Amino acid sequence: MSDQKRLFLVDAYALIFRGYYAFIKNPRINSKGEDTSAIMGFMNSLLDVIKRERPDHLAVCFDKGGSSDRVEMYEAYKANRDETPEGIRTAVPHIHNILKAMHIPILEKEGYEADDIIGTLSRQAEKEGYKVFMVTPDKDFAQLVTDNIFMYKPVFGGGYETWGIPEVKKKFEVEKPEQVIDFLGMMGDSSDNIPGLPGVGEKTAKKFINQFGSMEGLLANTDQLKGKMKEKIEANGELGVLSKELARIMLDVPVTFDAKDFELDHPDIEKVKEIFQDLEFRRLTENFIKTFNGNGETTVATPTETNKTENKPTPKKPQSAGAGQFSLFGGGDNNDGEETNQYVRKTAETTSHFYQSVASVMATKLFVKNLLNQTSVCFDTETTSINPLQAELVGIAFSWEAGKGFYVPFPEDKNEAQILIEEFRPFFEDENIEKIGQNLKYDIKVLAKYNIEVKGKLFDTMLAHYLINPDMRHNMDVLAETYLNYTPISITELIGKKGKNQLSMRDVPIEKQTEYAVEDADITLQLKEHFEKELGEANTQKLFDEIEVPLLRVLASMELEGINLDIEFLNALAEELNDDIQNLEQKIYDEAGEEFNIASPKQLGVILFEKLKLVDKPKKTKTGQYSTAEDVLSYLAKDHEIVQHILDYRGLSKLKSTYVDALPNQVEPHTGRVHTDYMQTVAATGRLSSNNPNLQNIPIRTERGRQVRKAFIPRDENYTLLAADYSQIELRIIAALSKEETMIEAFRNGEDIHASTASKVFNVPISEVTREQRGNAKTVNFGIIYGVSAFGLSNQTNLTRSESKELIDTYYATYPKLRIYIQDQVDFARDNGYVQTVLGRRRYLKDINSRNAVVRGAAERNAVNAPIQGSAADIIKIAMIRIHDKLKAGKFKSKMLLQVHDELVFDIYRPELEDMKVLIKTEMENAYKLEVPLDVELDIGDNWLEAH
DNA sequence: CGGACCACCTA
DNA sequence: GTAGGTGGTCCGG
C-alpha cells in the first residue's frame, strides 16, 4: 500500500438514517425521554470507520435545504419523501455539536445535497494527489468512482465494501462509472422521486446500457426496440433526459478542499465526554476514549468481512481470535444491549463454538449421565410443526456452557422416539435441575405429548424480556442481535420460506440441525445470564418467579385441555345466517340498483356516496377512501333503509366468517376440541392474548352474536360449565390506588357503581337516576380508565364537547382523589420513564416527554391505563396459578379452560360443583388485597351462554 | 402470496 | 380515550 494521503468524506444523513432505522424496533431512549437512536447509530459508524481505517483526513457532509437546482428541474424531486422522523431531526444538532468537539469539519451548503459536496470535494482532493473514500451506503455515488476515488460502503450485517472501478463495472454491468448516471436515469429511483423511463427496471436498464451505452444512445436508437417498450420510450424521451440530469451528482459546488482543515487531529475529549454523558451514552463513551486515547489497538471485535476487494485502504490486522476454544463467544465482549454497533454482528461463522450431535445409544447414555450432573441446563426442542399438538420431536438441543452444546436427534418412528425420550425422563423430571428455554410453554406442551413432565425451576428468556421491556418484540433473533450482538442462523435458511416448498425440520441434514438447534440453546443460555441481572435491577424478579413462570405451566395445561365445541349447532347456525345474509344481499342490490361486493369498503363507498349521494360531503379515511365505518353508517341508517341493511349484512357476515364457519375448522382432530394459544408476551400491559382461534372475543353484545356461545359446551354430560367474572375490577383498582373514599365506600356498600356515580355527578337520589344518566356516568368511568379527554367522551356520548368537559369537571369534583392520582401517574412517568402495576410490572413510556402534544397525550393515557389494566391482569394471573395448583393438588377432575381478561371458564365435574364454587370464588376474591373488596360472580350452565 | 388497510369482535 | 385478534379486499412483487 502506498503512503498516499487518504481523505474520507462521510455522507451524514445516509448514515444517520441507517443508524436510526437499525434501532427502529428497539429505539434507544434515555431517561430524559430523548430518542438517541440516530445519534448512536451515526457515532457507531463514524468511530467504526476511524478505528478501522485511521484516516488522516476526514469531513462530514450534510444536505442543506434540499437541492434547489434539482427542484427547479423537476418539482416532484424527492417530494414524496416522508417528513423526517422526529428522532432524526432532534439528532442533527447533537451530531453537529459532537463533530465540532471532535474538530471534524461539517460541510453543508444551502441548496446543495451532500452528494454534490462530496462529488466536488472528491474531485478537488484527487487532483491534489489524495485517495478519496466516500463513506455512504447510497449506490448513486458509484458514478463518482475513479482510480483514486472509492466508495466505502457499509454492508448489511456488518463490515464494509470498498468499491473501485472494477466493482462498479461489475455491480452495474457498465464500462465506466459515469454510465451509472445513465443507469439510474433509466431505472429511476422511487425514494428520490427520479421518475426514470416507464417500464424500465434494473434488468432492462442494464441491458440498454450494454446495448446503447447511454441514455442518449438509447433515445437515438429506439428503432431497434419493438412493441410496447418502443412506444413507451419514444414517448418519454424528455423524461429520460431529465431523469439522467436528476441522477447526476454535481461537481461544481462552491466549496473548497482545505487539506489542513480536514486533518483528523485530536478531538476535545472532555467536551465529547460531556456531550455523551448528557445523552447517557456509556458504552459509546468508552469506545470513543479507546479510539482516541488508546493506542489504536482496539480493533473491532469480530467484523464480518464481505467481498474483500483489492482496494482495501489499509491492510487489515489479523483478527485476534480468543485464546481458548470458547472464550470468544460470550466472553469479554459481553454487550449489555445498551449500545450495539448494528453493522458488526457476530454469527456462528465468525464465532468459535463447539456443537456436537449425540448419535449412538452409548453416547446418549453417557450424555444423560453428564446432564444429570448439571444444576442448570438450557434446552430447545426441534419439531415438525409450530403447532405443538401436531408436532413430533425431531431433536432436542442442550447447553449449559456458553459456546458449547449438544444435539440429540430423534427417530421418525414414534415408538423409537418414545424409547429415546424415556432416557431423558430423569433429566426433565428432576426437581433440582433448573431448565432454561425460550418460550418454554411450547416445549412443555410438546413433551407433554410424550408424557414427559418438565419439573424443577424454570427460566424463560422470552418471559424475562417481556418483563424487562413489554413493548418490544421478544423473538430470539431480535434478542440475540440486541443483547449479544449476534445474528443466529435463520430458520428460512434451513427450511426455506413458508409456502409450498418449505421443508420440515426432519428433512434438514443432522449437521445443520445441530448447528441451528444448539445455537438456539446456546444463545438462550447466554441471554439468561443477561436477563437475570436486568430483572433484578428492575425489581421484577418476584413477578417473574412467582407469576409469569408459574403461569406458563398453567397456560400450557389449559391449552392442552382445550374446550368442547358443538359443531352441529354451529353448522345449523351457519345455515340460518346464510339465508339471512342472502336475503339482505338481494335487498341491498335492489336498493342500490346494481350488484356489487358489499364486503368491499371501496365499492360500497362508491355506491353510497357517488351513485346514491347519501351525503353532501362524505367523510374520508386517511387513505382518501370514503369511510363506511360503523359510526358513519349508523348515523345514516335511520334515514336510508339500504344503510341499515348493509350494517346488518356486515354484522352477520363477520359473525359467520369469523366464528360460525371458522371455529369448526379449528377443532383439533386428535382431541376433538378447540385449543387456543395464549400469548403471554404480546400485550404491553401484562394481559394475555389469545389466538388460533381467539377465544377472548367470542360475541356477546348482540342477541344474534351471543348464540355462538351456545356452541361452547362441557366435556360430557358429567360436566357443566362455570364462568367466574370479576365485577368492575378495573374501577375497583383505580378506586383503591387513588384512595378515593367516595368511590371506595360505594364499592364497600355493594352499590351499582355507574348508578352511584350518576347520582353523585347529576346530584339526584340513586333511585331516580335515569338510564341516560347512568349510561353517561358509565362512559366517564370507563373514560377515566382509558385516560379521559373531553373530545373522546363527546364522541362516545350524545353530549357536546363542552357538555363533556363540564361532566368531566363535575366528575373530578365528586372524586377529587382520582384527578390527583391520574396526575401523579403522569408525573411519575415523566420522572422515571415508566409506570408500574401493583406487582411492579413496568411499562416504559418513551414518548412521555415528547414535544409533540399528540404523541405525548397518547403516552399520558398509557401512563394512566397501563397500571390499571396491568394490575387487573396481575390479579387474575395470581388467581389462575392458585386455582390451578389447588385443582392439581386436590386431584380434582374439574379443569380451568379459558381466561378472558376478567373471567375464567371451567369445565366442572358435577360431583365437585359445590367445592369448586367455593374454591374458585375464594381464590379469585382473595388473590390480591386491596382497600376495595374484589367481587366475583359465578354462573353455571350447559353452555357458555347459559353460564354467563 | 404477503402486507396494508378497513371493518368489527372482545375486555 | 386503553389492550388485543381475525377476515375480507386490494395491490404489487
Would you summarize the structure shown here?
In addition to polymerase activity, this DNA polymerase exhibits 3'-5' and 5'-3' exonuclease activity. By secondary structure, the protein is of the alpha/beta class.
Structure description:
The protein is 47% helix and 12% strand. The chain is built from 37 helices and 26 strands. A six-stranded mixed β-sheet has the order 3-2-1-4-5-6. Strand 16 (667-668) and strand 17 form a beta hairpin. Residues 295-343 have low confidence and may be disordered. Residues 5-265 form the 5'-3' exonuclease domain. Residues 355-536 form the 3'-5' exonuclease domain. In addition to polymerase activity, this DNA polymerase exhibits 3'-5' and 5'-3' exonuclease activity.
List the main descriptive attributes of the protein structure presented here.
Nucleotidyltransferase, domain 5; 6-stranded mixed sheet; Rossmann fold; nucleotidyltransferase; single chain; globular; DNA-binding; 12% strand; Taq DNA Polymerase, Chain T, domain 4
